[in-house]
């Protein structure tokens, strides 16, 4: 499969509903996408992350609509495992250095093509996966080199509703969300 060109084709325009209707697997990075990219530590060394509850509800809505949901992250923490468990995310992949390989493996296991995968990421370790999937996105505050290769740049920042924004676009393309129910 050929990679997408890196000619700076990103935009904030909504993608074709046909592209979104074809998505069967929705994968996301964690730090900088589901969180604000901050790492918080207590004096005793406990790590904290802030997750956006609206993003979490979006993931649940995708699952209800029949999509497979996944987390693919380089970090390996109990916090992420707990969040994935709470949201009943069936595909949790932590400690991943080659995200594209993991996404390819998931797609193959579910008898999907990469064109049926949406992925949202924000940093350089996401670029290869973002270039390969059927629909790619980044939060508004993603790194400039990431924003150059994605299909869609969210209006929302990481940890502030970027995932929910994408979820609503996907659900609207399938008539699974009425426009009047959308967040403003």
TrEMBL record:
InterPro entries: CMP-NeuNAc_synthase (IPR050793), HAD-like_sf (IPR036412), HAD_sf (IPR023214), KdsC_fam (IPR010023). Keywords: Hydrolase, Magnesium, Metal-binding. Mg(2+) binds at residues 29, 122. Its EC number is 3.1.3.45. The keyword Metal-binding applies. SUPFAM superfamilies: HAD-like. Gene3D superfamilies: HAD superfamily/HAD-like. Pfam families: Hydrolase_3. One of its GO terms (molecular function) is 3-deoxy-manno-octulosonate-8-phosphatase activity. Substrate binds at residue 31. Its cofactor is Mg(2+). It comes from the Bacteria. PANTHER family: HAD SUPERFAMILY MEMBERS CMAS AND KDSC, N-ACYLNEURAMINATE CYTIDYLYLTRANSFERASE. Homotetramer. Belongs to the KdsC family. This is 3-deoxy-D-manno-octulosonate 8-phosphate phosphatase KdsC.
């Amino acid at each position: 499969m050929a990679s997408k060109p890196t000619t700076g084709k990103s935009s904030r325009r909504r993608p074709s509903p046909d592209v979104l209707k074809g998505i069967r697997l929705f994968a996301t990075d964690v730090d900088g996408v589901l969180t604000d990219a901050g790492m918080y530590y207590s004096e005793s060394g406990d790590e904290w992350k802030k997750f956006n509850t609206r993003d979490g509800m979006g993931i649940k809505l995708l699952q209800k609509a029949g999509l497979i949901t996944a987390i693919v992250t380089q970090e390996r923490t109990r916090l992420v495992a707990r969040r994935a468990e709470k949201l009943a995310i069936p595909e949790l992949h932590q400690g991943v250095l080659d995200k594209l390989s993991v996404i390819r493996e998931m797609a193959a296991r579910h008898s999907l093509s990469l064109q049926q995968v949406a992925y949202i990421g924000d940093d350089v370790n996401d670029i290869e996966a973002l270039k390969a999937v059927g629909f790619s996105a980044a939060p508004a505050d993603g790194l400039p080199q990431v924003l150059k290769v994605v299909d869609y740049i969210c209006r929302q920042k990481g940890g502030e509703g970027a995932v929910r924004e994408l979820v609503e676009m996907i659900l609207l393309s399938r008539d699974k969300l009425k426009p009047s129910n959308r967040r403003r």
